[in-house]
Amino acid sequence: MKFILTDIEGTTTSISFVHDELFPYSKERMSEFLKQNYEKPEVIKCIDQVKDTVLNEQNKMMTNIEVSEQLIEWINLDRKHPALKELQGLIWEKGYESGEIKGHVYEDVMPALKKWKDNGITLAIYSSGSVKAQKLLFQYSTKGNLLSFFSHQFDTAVGNKREVSSYKKIATELNCLASDILFLSDIKEELDAAREAGMKTIQLVRDDQVIIGNHPQAKSFSTI
Predict the structure, then answer these.
(1) Can you give the pTM of this predicted structure?
(2) pLDDT tier for residue 123 given thresholds of 50, 70 and 90
(3) Any idea which architecture 3-14+102-223 has in CATH?
(4) Who has the most CB within 10 Å: 61, 81, 111, 207?
(5) What does the alpha-carbon distance between residue 26 and residue 78 come to, in Å, rounded to a whole number?
């Protein structure tokens, strides 16, 4: 195996950390963040993306205040919208840098990453969270800065995590055969898509909430 591609939520990191800490943190600060940063190019771009999406989906023009309300609604719905993910990353960045947030990783993750990298395996991430959010989580993790373990990060810019084409694109980006990649995730449908693309798969089953698929299973990274 030349590459290990890992999901984050439910795989390296507790689902509760994302839903009970990260999401509320960005939700509470979204309106104020937009007010303070309306003129920044990266924020303007995100606001325009939200307005375009709502115009296309609802045939409705939005004010900037309505954009803020829409983003909060999307947080509640856990919508994987690129503008929301980008803005959440910017908000979380301040939280990580101030020490208010520490990225959760399971105890077994760091030793496994070190072992795999020492054995010459290239490590990469594929998550629905933005690349920026991925980097922040591992840079400011509860186990220190783990970012150097990963050579590549992928988010939904390559496609939906339940689509076969996304995993084919990742193999192309990594310049390897899909069969050279082992994909780790807790989500059955993601693993199904990766396997159909030609990747090896292992399902992380860290609790009894996981919907079991027809894939090899592991309860932790240490058993892989």
Answers:
(1) 0.89
(2) very high
(3) 3-Layer(aba) Sandwich (3.40)
(4) 81
(5) 12
